[in-house]
Amino acid sequence: MRIRATATTTTAAAAVAACGALILSALAVPAARAAQPATAGPAASDPGAPGPVVSEALVNGGKDIVLGTTAPRTVTVSVTASHPSGIETGWLMLWHGKDQEEGLEAVLLPNEDAAACRAASATTSTCSLTITVDPRVDLYKNSLAGTWHVLAGARAKDGSLTSSDFFTTARVQRLSKLTVNAAPEPVKKGGTITVTGKLSRANWEDHKYHGYTGQAVKLQFRKKTSSTYTTVKTIKTNSVGNLKTTVKASVDGYWRYSFAGTSTTPAVTTAGDFVDVK
Q1: SS3 category, 143
Q2: Which run of H or of E encompasses 27?
Q3: Residue 87 CB contacts under 8 Å (≥ 6 apart), including other chains
Q4: CA pair distance 187, 277, nearest whole angstrom
Q5: What is the pLDDT of residues 54-89, one digit of tens each?
Q6: Is the predicted pLDDT of residue 103 greater than 80, yes or no?
Q7: Distance CA 110, CA 74 (A)
Q8: 99 Cβ contact list (under 8 Å, min separation 6)
Q9: In this structure, are residues 172 and 64 in contact, taking their beta carbons and an 8 Å threshold?
Q10: Measured at the alpha carbon of residue 52, what is the angle toward residues 155 and 44, in degrees to the nearest 5?
């Protein structure tokens, strides 16, 4: 389990108070990959007080978090909540695992000790934080790619709290790469063009890129005089991620490969490779 060392005071404390089960189990584990079950339930300063209503928890602007093999990435997260007394603070974290009873595989906590809250009105605020994800530390196995749970909560100015371990989800994906080469260049009209390429993606376990096998990839073409690509055929990557197919040359134009992506790997499209047809 990965615990961000900087999230140790206000943010962590608020999260512990609102949802001690999940956060406390995370903060209590010194090893980066240990997983401990959570046992406590949510707590509030006044159990009888109605807590804030969290209307939105946004991770990376609603976009997937995509990581390669080495470079860390920092994303913005935010919580929007409302309460008659106003909002004092909010918090958000990402966690991976089935549930609290079976333990957590990984946890991503905010960098800041406290959220920066902006009031939209006397009762509603949006509280923002950042989370830095380091693929060499946080993403220690490839099975962490895909859906993560988002814990989100808020504290109102009257001290009442609300928090949900399963407020929403976010996706963390393995960066994909795709290449294309159309040859020969130039080629006679009616001749055969061979289009090769490779689809690969980040491996978080050995920090290299490996071929993504058995994936459907579209071969697309646009005429030199056009701005629109048309799908010519769909082929699959082989056992090492390579692509190879042939087409007949008709007019000058650009050839490219396009991969639609999966839940664990983002979409990627190559630039067009121009072939001059004589």
Answers
A1: helix
A2: helix 20-27
A3: 52, 81, 117, 119, 123, 124, 125, 127, 154, 155, 156, 157
A4: 5
A5: 999 999 999 999 999 999 999 999 999 999 999 999
A6: no
A7: 10
A8: none
A9: yes
A10: 55
pLDDT at 127 > cutoff 70: yes
Alpha-carbon distance of 141 to 172, in angstroms, equals 12
**Dist. CA 201–CA 209, nearest whole Å:** 5
What is the pLDDT, as a whole number, of residue 8? 33
For the entire predicted model, the pTM comes to: 0.84
- pLDDT attached to residue 47: 57
Residue 212 confidence (pLDDT)? 98
* Residue 72, token pair as written in the block: 């860390």
Q: Are 87 and 125 in contact (CB under 8 A)?
A: yes
Structure tokens at 242: 């390579």
Say which residue the tokens 């943010």 belong to: 11
How many residues does this entry show for the chain?
278
Taking a C-beta distance cutoff of 8 angstroms, is the pair 221, 253 a contact? yes
Element (H, E) at 246: strand 242-248
